[in-house]
Fold this protein.
Amino acid sequence: MKYHKINSELFIKNRKNFASKMKPNSLAVFNSNDVYPISADSTMPFEQQRDIFYLSGVDQEESILMLFPDCPNENLREVLFLTETNDHIAVWEGEKLTKDAAFSTSGIKTVFWLQDLEKVLFEMASYADTFYINTNEHYRANVETETREDRFTKWLLAKYPAHSVAKSNPILQRLRSVKDPIELELMQKACDITEKGFRRILDFIKPDVWEFEIEAELLHEFVRNRSKGFAYTPIIASGNNANVLHYTENNQQCKTGDLILFDTAAEYANYASDLSRTVPVSGRFSDRQKAVYNAVNHVKKEATKLLVPGTLWKEYHVEVGKLMTSELLNLGLLDKADVQNEDKNWPAYKKYFMHGTSHHIGLDTHDYGLLHEPMQANNVFTVEPGIYIPDEGFGIRLEDDVVIQEKGEPFNLMRNIPIEADEIEDIMNQ
């Protein structure tokens, strides 16, 4: 891994917190992700399943974690199963975790090779009444591929049909949404790497540069700072491309007078950051562009203040809608009749700001979190209002990642990344 070793205390705490929510006499199972094929002998870069990483720190394929806090055999209360490494694997693929390295990473003392799985599981299952299975129940999930976790669950329940079944996901949704101080440090590192990338491209952008050249500059800066790269598919959208919310082609030339909307950020140690900025290709905003930019920035600042413990996500978005409506009226994009006659299910402001303002962020860019429950301290949210005007050939989105505090306004993990229009112009014209 490129990232520095993470303190195993994080994973020890995470397992303890998860175990405290389990039913008596129950066994929870977590699998790594598959290595997905492309064609011939090619595969996609491996990405660890975030739940097993959250609970163990193991960042390796073909890994299984089992938690059984009430197991009468004390050695089987926390168990890792790994692929046995050898000299041949070390030569062809690089070193895999040894049992000692797995303990150092996770704090788990009992580590078996996968070849012992069925034998060890048989003993554990004989003590257990309930299996906790891990299903993806994120509100944005749309998974068509059968995962390694799915296959294992199917096998487990067929082999042990008399056991009761419970779900790990509701526990993880709550636990993962509240970040540990160690996690916040890792997320701050991801944001700091993102800052380096953004400052690099402010010096690089000029008329006639290509969007993919900017993407390359960002990737260079991210990787040289120990990131694997982008936390999500990068959006580098010049001109009217910015009005396509998930534009990822990044293949157009940036023209004089246009704006470039960036939705690009680095990961670090599997933790995501999520940044949006909009900058002028020529180094100066037009008066109209700056007016819209400042309107978006004002909504972002006021929306951020609403992210406090006790806030409900739905109510928050209603309030942000009111803020945006006021700005759109001031810009002449809406008039009073538009607002008076609006459909309450699709308010007038949605013509120019059609997406949500905030989402949880952490090990996933759209991280775990139960949106029907009140916000609480150490939730981390994005704040990302935008105004999109196809008729005028530009769109503007601004986004930071913030940590909800016990009292007062959130702490901005991206506080050092330039955002004020005048500051961006100053940097681009140094």
In short: The mean pLDDT is 96. The CA atoms of residues 239 and 258 lie 5 Å apart. The first helix runs from residue 9 to 19. The two ends are 37 Å apart (CA to CA).
